[in-house]
Amino acid sequence: MKNVAIIMGGYSSEYQISLTSGGVVYSYLDKSKYKAFKIHIFKEKWVYVTESGTEYSVNKNDFSVDVNGDKITFDVVFNAIHGTPGEDGLMQAYFELLGIPQTSCDYYQSALTFNKRDLLSVLKPYGIKTATSYYLNLGDVIDADLIIKTVGLPCFVKPNKSGSSFGISKVKSLEELLPAIENAYKEDNEIIIESFLDGVEVSVGVINYKGKVTVLPITEIVSENDFFDYEAKYLGKSQEITPARISDELKQKVETVAKRAYEVLKMKGFSRSEFIIVNNEPYMLEMNTIPGMTTESILPQQAKVAGISLTELFDNAIELALLR
Question: Which residue among 13, 50, 92, 160 is the one 20 to 30 A from 229 at the CA level?
């Protein structure tokens, strides 16, 4: 029986969602094959949390846990941390140095995809379309007129490196721009301002399933709010329709682009990319490498429609990590 460390929590605003994802992985893992351990990773502590809530410190030198004189080591790590340090390459590099396999992509791909600006720049030469954008770093002079001239109105102001729509604003007037930029800077010191793409929003899960790159059924996102924000994602203010209500021809086009992005980047593990379809062309917004794993999350919904249970989904991720 393999010892699986499910890492969850993290250092970002997304820690609560990550704890839920990690809990779902823990519940659905095949108990006949794996002995699962909940490992909470926070800035102030890394701990193994038992069923009764007792905490044991993780030894960061070799990622082991001492439980009353018994040293526990792990065969594989299931990464369920959204945001830093689980989705930006830090944990991936750490485990690579320790020689412990983990379920997400490698550290370079994690760091690249976590940085929306860099990701889109790398994918552009491969014919993957993106919104018109304007970049700001903390301390840059803000020329509001130039920004609006470049991206138009309405536009989106986003932190470059954050998830779950924290810090994102839809800006409809010049007056709203500066407050939106200040709001985004609360999450990150780099900002991406993008033109508004008016079209159908879809989310596309791509995974390696049993050794084959597989595009899961596409989800269409219909938000009650102005865009697919935190409330829409987690508080039921959106409809997520799987499979998406798009033509077969368009479905094929989106699948091709999502699969190409996965392969070009030499991805491993899970990925979920967001696109907006304008005039029958998919425009990529971002790619998540540790997508939500709650039972309501998009990727598990897509797997379900594809006939893959959560237990099979998680088992596959661990098997592939162990094969590496």
Answer: 92
